[in-house]
Design brief:
Number of helices of chain B: 31
Largest interface: A-B, 61 and 66 residues
Number of domains of chain A: 1
Structural class of chain A: alpha/beta
Structural class of chain B: alpha+beta
Shape of chain B: globular
Oligomer: heterodimer
Radius of gyration of chain A: 17 Å
Distance between the termini of chain B: 51 Å
Strand order of the largest sheet of chain B: 17-19-15-20-18-21-22
CATH class of the largest domain in chain B: Alpha Beta
Shape of chain A: globular
CATH architecture of chain A: 3-Layer(aba) Sandwich
Strand content of chain A: 15-25%
Radius of gyration of chain B: 29 Å
Order of helices and strands of chain A: EHEHEHEHEEEEHEEEH
Chain lengths: 265, 968
């Protein structure tokens, strides 16, 4: 009998989709544990005790001074070594929405430079949506990367909501875009309902992200960050058209991939 | 200490700019060509140049998209930025905006914390501001834009050019207590004291206070006087709803009006009594706690509360609505429940109002709307509570008095809520710190506003910090589960005075205000006691549990402050630094208020009101009228606002605010399946509101909106036997007998309707004095407005029904007593010359219709269902077509087409049924009004006939376009 892999769900100051992702991971076969950031600081819990790491959605520090930024400062100030060790061990990491923002602002994603978290010359960011405001609506996502352990082998479009004001992926280093493609780091892209690429068209691409990027992984493929919320589409009745008999595009397979991968480690 | 000024600008156009430009144009500043916003930070401290650079790069800016500049004040005299381009003779004008001293600045607080985390210990204080570069405006126009859009003088200062930071004044700490001399004052002198302290107390109340202190042999302190004024305010004491009302001249008895002569408390006579008579066994708490509570399943109970935050939202829309949400969320925390859903119902003046028509001192309705919506969005989204249901209504009567109804639903395990502090328990304040925020909010909201209100009551504006409140949720739910507290209540209007006063009302307490953590020094004791600073809860905690609670607070970054203990003395004693500043008998504070004696006059229900503007059918076709109705701001799509609210967080939103193939049609109600519950049961949330009816007939309005809320809930699948309702009355000045008369009529309507449907009231709130005394001396009152919010249960969420047409070939039925009228209808708003009609009445068989409909829903016979409301049958049918992107071919039979299409009704719904289930469906409606109207079609057209004669045929695309007209 295999034991379920345990997932650390990090509760920062202002995290709010912690229970949502805990339910998704639980259904996907993991044993989710909500861990307050302060318990990690106090050493009551350790990253290394877990097989998966989840940075859930929310508004850490109320998005003051930029979404995810102050949580990223925490990660760098208190947990740089532990997180680096977790990532380098190859265990699955997922940052959703605010968690993605924190991973990017901490330099963990896209993670193309070795110095990552120590570097202050960031070249990528998730900035204000092109529309200039928060938006909650359902989107369609095309799994792309066969390198990312969370999306490898997924073929079906994922349908799930976004709920963010700063999810617009931008970079000041144009060469990075080709690197992201060639290194198979573009894990999820925004698409039309029929699965065709959004090509930057609103609202299929809801925020103006370059290359319709909704989710990115690190070059090693074990760390995924994404703006949309697959954890809010794990039951058929969460789908906006379920009363019409349409319930396709569950977010569960993505979580199952991560959990399966952790089980096999 | 040096102060550094940092300016952060986007390298690309700032995405916020377009929205501001559109707002500016809509607010009449049409010459503005370009607006660029930048962020300003002031940091006071000893910082090296390298530290400044690091702060700019690591904390203040996003180096990928932004550039930072900084310099030390006041060293730099000239602006270091490149000279603006001069275009068509108008240079760029700079306007800078900063908060007024003492206004909560959560971003600055985070800035300091983060700087210290990075090791920049030299950072001492911080403040934030905004900088706007305006092109196309001269200096005067720039000033106009600043005051109309960019700054709100209630909380902000603005300046052309560079503004300086405003740190809170470091006033000396103050234990100053003033004695208010009341003994021996004449009546007029007593009223003068009430007026000068903005206490909103009337003579009988002032005399009761005077008598109490005469018997005590002393005069009150300012702390005592302010505490009494707050406890006895209309806002906290509901004096009108508890008043003895004499019906001055009952009219000849007609429908729904009696001749009682005297009513002893509207609350008891009409609302509580309805609940008592219904005696539903599943009601766990009604009118007792901070929120009403009903059973959910064997394991859980659900609570619901709807509050108004009208006056604060009028003068500071963002902060007012923001803290309105924060306040009602705390109400639900106050019954030990987890907040799981929010609702918001908003009433504004017309968005197209011209500035010259606005009363002096009133913000433009467009600005109020965008500020209120942003405030609701900010608080709900950041706390992670889905906003799932709401409504929006426009009427010129709301221009000076917008209405903001905020609701929160809570979920809690049964039996965990405790409410009895014990002797020796400590009085603990959790959460935010106390400042001057919101002083006298309770009394302020009980007054008529005037042009000076914004100025004088500036301190009444509270600013929210949702993340602090999220911390409260994180602390309190485990504290509840571990039984760490014995009683809990929220700090709302009246602050600690209200919260501690209420909790100690049966046992007594002794607290010392010197222990209260302050945002800044210098508050006097009465200010600390009355402050309405947000995000605070008071709990009674046995001393042995304090370490465990402290540990939870440390885990979730929440401040815990012990301020005293519950004593068992029956007196409320408040000290400052051990010196007694308040010592009142509980009995006097809570029972000593004299019952108000009021007069009411019933007026004849008016028929269709004369219309304020021109327009109307104007010879247009029925199709054109339907399109006009669909684009009427009260009916048209609210999608632009709905998408700003997170309605998906917590993963339980089964029926969402928008439904259908393109998710752009209006749901009747929301269905929520709370995360963590294991059965199939879901919560249904809906509302009913119709001030148009209120203008004509308050009694029928009450029946109609109660029916509407229930109808909406039943439409999506709620069991009509398990619906509870909440009332929110927003009215004008109850001292005017006609105004009070319509309030009495509405309360009676609530009572009659609740009994008819068997739906108990479990909570309610009133907001009176929604009047504005313009500088012109005219009173601007709101239309009588009653919001009914319904909370119901659906036994199996898999049986939920949405309003979008599902399948061509299905049959469409009309159920309910179809007796369309024009009184108060939206058609009457468009058409100038229609017959004089009353507003719709409620058929007594309506509850049977709903029960039959629910029986059908349970059997899975209903494919879609939508209620008839504003705009009548034609609008309902059109919305169903939009939802399914399918057509309808209907025949209303032999009846007047205009009345049939656009007249309004109560108790009616359109229902889609598959042909092979029609027989079963009709059998369940035996003896009840049900009519087969027609068929769902693949042809993308809405066609409606009367007696085979085609009256309307419109392509679905035209319906979609009209329905999606921006709200104007």
């Amino acid at each position: 009998m295999t034991t379920k892999p345990t997932a650390l769900i990090l509760q920062a100051y202002g995290t709010n989709r912690d229970y949502d992702v805990a339910e998704a991971l639980s259904i996907a076969g993991a044993d989710p544990v909500l861990v307050p950031l302060n318990h990690l600081r106090l050493g009551k819990r350790h990253f290394s005790d877990f097989q998966l790491l989840v940075l859930p959605g929310g508004f850490s520090y109320a998005d003051a001074l930029g979404a995810g930024k102050l949580l990223a400062l925490d990660l760098k100030a208190y947990f740089a070594d532990e997180i680096r060790a977790f990532v380098e061990s190859g265990r699955p990491v997922i940052g959703i929405c605010n968690g993605f923002q924190a991973l990017v602002k901490a330099g963990i994603l896209p993670g193309n430079r070795k110095q990552g978290m120590e570097s202050s010359d960031a070249t990528t960011t998730l900035t204000f949506n092109a529309k200039g405001h928060f938006e909650c609506r359902w989107v369609s996502l095309r799994p792309g990367s066969q390198n990312c352990i969370w999306t490898k082998g997924l073929s079906e479009t994922i349908e799930c909501p976004i709920a963010h004001g700063e999810g617009n992926f931008q970079t000041s280093d144009q060469s990075l875009l080709s690197a992201l493609s060639s290194l198979n780091q573009i894990a999820l892209t925004y698409a039309h309902l029929d699965g065709s690429p959004a090509n930057g068209e609103y609202p299929a691409n809801p925020n103006g992200s370059l290359l319709d990027i909704a989710g990115l992984c690190n070059p090693a493929g074990n760390v995924l960050g994404l703006m949309p919320h697959p954890e809010n589409h794990i039951h058929p009745h969460q789908h906006p058209r379920w009363t019409r008999g349409l319930t396709m595009g569950s977010g569960l397979p993505l979580f199952r991939k991560g959990v399966k991968y952790a089980e096999a480690l | 200490m040096p102060i550094y000024r940092f300016v952060i600008r986007f390298n690309q156009p700032d995405p916020r700019s377009d929205a501001l430009l559109a707002d500016a144009h809509a607010l009449g500043v049409e010459k503005l060509k370009l607006i660029t916003c930048q962020d300003i930070y002031f940091i006071e401290g000893q910082l090296s140049p390298e530290e400044c650079r690091q702060l700019a790069l690591k904390i203040l800016s996003d180096p990928v998209t932004q550039t930072a500049d900084w310099y030390e004040l006041p060293g730099a005299v000239s602006d270091p930025e490149p000279a603006p381009s001069e275009d068509e003779g108008t240079a760029t004008v700079f306007v800078e905006v900063a908060l007024r001293p003492g206004v909560t600045d959560p971003v600055a607080a985070q800035l300091i914390r983060a700087a210290h985390e990075l090791g920049f210990d030299g950072v001492h204080r911080a403040a934030t501001g905004s900088r706007f570069l305006l092109e196309g405006l001269d200096q005067e126009q720039a000033g106009e834009l600043a005051s109309r859009l960019l700054a709100n003088p209630t909380i902000q200062r603005w300046k052309k050019g560079s503004i300086s930071p405003s740190f809170p004044q470091e006033a000396a700490s103050s234990g100053e207590v003033e004695t208010i001399h009341l003994r021996g004052l004449s009546d007029s002198e007593l009223l003068a004291v009430s007026g000068s302290r903005r206490a909103a107390l009337e003579l009988a109340e002032m005399k009761a206070i005077q008598a109490y202190f005469q018997s005590e042999g002393r005069d009150p302190t300012d702390v005592e006087f302010e505490a009494i004024a707050q406890t006895w305010s209309e806002h906290c004491g509901h004096k009108t709803f508890k008043a003895k009302i004499t019906i001055a001249s009952p009219l000849p008895s007609g429908e729904g009006r009696g001749d009682e002569g005297e009513i002893d408390s509207l609350l008891k006579t009409y609302l509580k009594s309805a609940t008592d008579k219904i005696a539903a066994p599943w009601v766990r708490s009604a009118f007792v706690d901070n929120a009403g509570i009903i059973d959910f399943d064997d394991e859980f109970e659900v609570s619901f509360k709807v509050e108004t935050h009208n006056h604060p939202s009028a003068i500071e829309p963002f902060g007012g609505a923001n803290t309105g949400v924060g306040g009602v969320v705390r109400d639900v925390l106050g019954v030990s429940a987890k907040p799981i859903a929010n609702t918001d119902v908003l009433c504004f003046g017309p968005q197209s109002a011209s500035f010259s028509d606005l009363p002096v001192g009133v913000l433009h309705p467009r600005r109020i709307l965008s500020g209120v919506v942003a405030g609701v969005q900010d608080y709900g989204n950041k706390m992670g509570i889905p906003t799932v249901n709401g409504a929006l209504w426009f009427d010129p009567g709301y221009t000076a008095n917008p209405l903001v109804f905020c609701g929160t639903v809570g979920l809690a395990p049964k039996g965990r809520h405790v409410r009895t502090p014990r002797r020796g328990d400590r009085v603990i304040v959790l959460g935010g710190r106390t400042g001057r925020d919101g002083l006298r909010g309770a009394t302020f909201s009980s007054m008529t506003m005037d042009a000076q209100t914004g100025e004088v009551s500036g301190a009444s504006v509270q600013i929210g910090d949702p993340i602090i409140e999220k911390g409260l949720v994180d602390v309190l739910l485990p504290a509840r589960d571990r039984g760490l507290y014995t009683a809990i209540t929220d700090c709302g209007a009246g602050g600690l005075s209200s919260a501690v006063g209420e909790m100690a009302s049966s046992i007594g307490a002794d607290v010392d205000l010197a222990h209260v953590h302050l945002k800044y020094p210098g508050l006097t004791p009465w200010e600390i006691w009355l402050s309405e600073a947000q995000e605070r809860m008071v709990v009674a905690v046995p001393p042995e549990n304090i370490p465990a609670l402290q540990e939870l607070c440390d885990t979730y970054n929440t401040e815990l402050t012990e301020i005293g203990e519950f004593t068992g003395s029956g007196r409320l004693v408040v000290r400052y630094d051990n010196k007694v500043v308040l010592d009142l008998a509980n009995e006097f504070l809570h029972e000593g208020i004299p019952q108000r004696q009021l007069k009411a006059i019933f007026s004849t229900p008016s028929l269709v009101l004369p219309r304020p503007d021109g327009g109307g059918l104007g010879g247009g076709s029925l199709a054109e009228t339907l399109l006009k109705l669909l684009s009427h701001p009260n009916i048209a799509s609210k999608a632009s606002i709905i998408h700003l609210y997170d309605h998906e967080v917590q993963g339980g939103t089964v029926v969402k605010p928008l439904a259908g193939l393109e998710a752009d049609a209006p749901s009747d109600a929301a269905v929520v399946k709370p995360i963590g519950t294991t059965g199939k049961t879901g919560i249904v949330l809906s509302n009913g509101l119709n001030p148009e009816y209120g203008k004509c007939d308050a009694h029928r309005m009450a029946l109609a909106v109660l029916d509407e809320a229930i109808r909406n809930a039943v439409a999506v699948g709620a069991d009509p036997a398990r619906i509870a309702v909440l009332d929110n009355f927003c009215w004008g000045d109850p001292l005017r007998p006609e105004t009070l008369g319509s309030l009495v009529e509405a309360a009676r309507g609530c009572h009659d309707g609740a009994l008819l449907f068997g739906t108990p009231f479990i909570s309610g709130k009133d907001s009176l004095n929604n009047e504005y005394l313009g500088a012109d001396g005219q009173r601007h009152a709101i239309p009588p407005t009653l919001l009914i919010s319904a909370i119901g249960l659906i036994p199996d969420i898999a049986k939920a029904v949405t309003m979008d047409l599902k399948q061509a070939g299905n049959l469409l039925f009309l159920v309910g007593e179809f007796a369309p009228v024009f009184g108060g209808s939206h058609f009457a708003l468009l058409a100038p010359d229609i017959s004089h009609d009353p507003v719709p009445t409620l058929a007594t068989n309506t509850p049977k219709v709903y029960r039959a409909l629910h029986a059908c829903t349970k059997q899975g016979l209903i494919r879609s269902c939508h209620d008839l409301s504003e705009g009548g049958l034609a609008v309902a049918a059109a919305e169903m077509c939009i939802g399914g992107r399918l057509g309808l071919d209907l025949d209303l039979g032999p009846r007047d087409p205009v009345r049939g299409l656009f007249g309004e009704t109560t108790g009616c719904l359109l229902v889609e049924v598959e042909p092979d289930k029609a027989e079963t469906f009709e059998a369940l409606f035996t003896g009840l009004p049900v009519v087969h109207l027609g068929t769902v079609t693949d042809a993308p057209t809405l066609s409606i006939r009367t007696n085979t004669e085609l009256q309307i045929t419109i392509p679905i695309t035209a319906l979609v376009t009209a329905w999606n007209t921006p709200l104007q």
